[in-house]
Amino acid sequence: MKTAFIPIDNRPVCYSLAKDIAAMDEDIELYLPPRELLGDLTKTADTESLFKWLENLPEIDSMVLSLDTLAYGGLIPSRRSKDTYEEIKTRMERLKPILEGKNVYAFSSIMRISNNNYNEEEKEYWKDWGKEIFAYSFSGVNEGIPPEILEDYLATRKRNFEINKTYLDWGLDTLIFSKDDCATKGFNVDEALELERMGGKTKTGADEIPLTLLARAIEKEIKVFVEYTEPDYKACVSNYEDVSIEKSVQGQLELGGFVQVQTKEEADIVLVVNNFVEKQGELVMGWPTKPYDKIFIPPEKPYAVADVRFANGADNAFVTQLLEKLDLANFYGYSGWNTSANTLGSLLAGIKVKWQAKKYNDGAFKRLQAIRFLDDWAYQANVRGLIDKPCDIKELMAPFEDKLLMLLGSKPDYTYPWDRKFEVEVIL
What are residue 27's phi and psi, to 5 degrees? Predict the structure, then answer.
């Protein structure tokens, strides 16, 4: 299987994770553009070089595309770009002949509305008016937003929305519009509903969707039984999402090409979802939630774990038990990074590749799991809270590495690709 893959940007969870997942099957040839062509926190992707890269690909079976990368230079630039609608539309017309005759799995984001006054990933004025813009979107009440700022914000939204509508006529095999960091109400929710009325498909999430589409590109039916650690609370809504955790799971399974079944007996694999009671915790913001307080009994058939009790990191209580009882013979993966959708989509991609692998590489599987535990559990849920800024964390990570010796083939190193605490890159 030969697949071209254009990520959202150069973050490890967008770029390196795709490679690590595909590496479990040596029969998959994943074509990624050079990492330096992609955007980061402050740099826009080199779209001209990316188009040339696409135009010079060898014969491939499928393409997984983050359209924001080609249209605006990345997910973050899609909120900041000053390019006009006509400029972006003309740029994207160049993509159409490249896609002819290919199986194409693409997604484009519905511009998010962040509920804070941090402008790290937004336009400059977000540091002063972010919460007010969110409130205006949610309630329709303008609490003093200057007219020129509101006009600029709404114009950027309208441009992106109009660009998204143009994709509906492209006839792509799969086209998804992602609801990134979404509340239950707002401009982005209204835009999603309008796109759905026009025949578009929307999904809550963003960063993980290219990975879920990679799973979809692998045409293999896998029957999944979903086992919630808190079944009475599966109707609760995750942070940064607009649907219940149950619907989020169902949506990711459907998009990834899985079949959800009603009993363990008929399932190929059990998806264990460590969900939350009433309110999802948030490690970054310090929002508490009830940790896992039961006795975890691993399923007797193949299983994987989506740890969504907390956003932005693992549930320590659950992972402690999971590692104590981990039997690699039946284990198909762990994930606990960022939002519930991020966790689910990336985990399902790994399940699909491992399950259908024609040339399975067990070392690549162990490497993938080591990185996820070191990132989602060791760093995000523990070490990150002990540091004030990016620094040398080898000594702090060492106790966690000792508990992962069954997965580690070498001593890890750690870097900060975007020079901030939010994401670390685990290098093995």
Answer: -80, -15
For residue 52, what are the contacts with CB-CB under 8 A and spacing of at least 6?
A: none
Residue 204 one-letter amino acid: T
**Across the chain, what does the average pLDDT equal?**
96
The count of residues in the chain is 428
Parallel, antiparallel or unpaired: strands 425-427 and 413-415: antiparallel
User: Taken in order 273, 278, 279, 283, is the CA torsion positive or negative?
Assistant: negative
What phi and psi, each to the nearest 5 degrees, are found at residue 140? 80, 5
The least confident of 25-39, 170-184, 393-407 is 170-184
Q: Inform me whether the pLDDT recorded for 182 exceeds 90.
A: no
pLDDT number for residue 74: 96
Q: Which domains does the chain have, with CATH numbers?
A: 2-215 (3.40.50), 220-427 (no CATH)
Q: What is the rounded CA–CA span in Å between residue 392 and residue 54?
A: 38
- Per the CB < 8 A criterion, the answer to whether 205 and 339 are in contact is yes
Residue 91 to residue 78: CA distance in whole angstroms? 14
The answer, yes or no, to whether residue 353 has pLDDT greater than 80, is yes
One-letter amino acid for residue 332 of the chain: Y
Q: How confident is the model at residue 220 (pLDDT cuts 50, 70, 90)?
A: confident
Nearest CA-CA partner of 24 in 357, 404, 410, 408: 357
Please answer whether residues 8 and 75 qualify as being in contact, where contact means their C-beta atoms are separated by less than 8 angstroms.
yes
C-beta separation of 89 from 163 below 8 A: yes
pLDDT tens-place string over residues 76-117: 999 999 999 999 999 999 999 999 999 999 999 999 998 899
Give the global pTM: 0.94
Strands 223-228 and 259-260: parallel
Query: Nearest Cα to 336, choosing from 374, 363, 298, 302?
Result: 374
Please list the residues that pair with 281 across neighbouring strands.
310
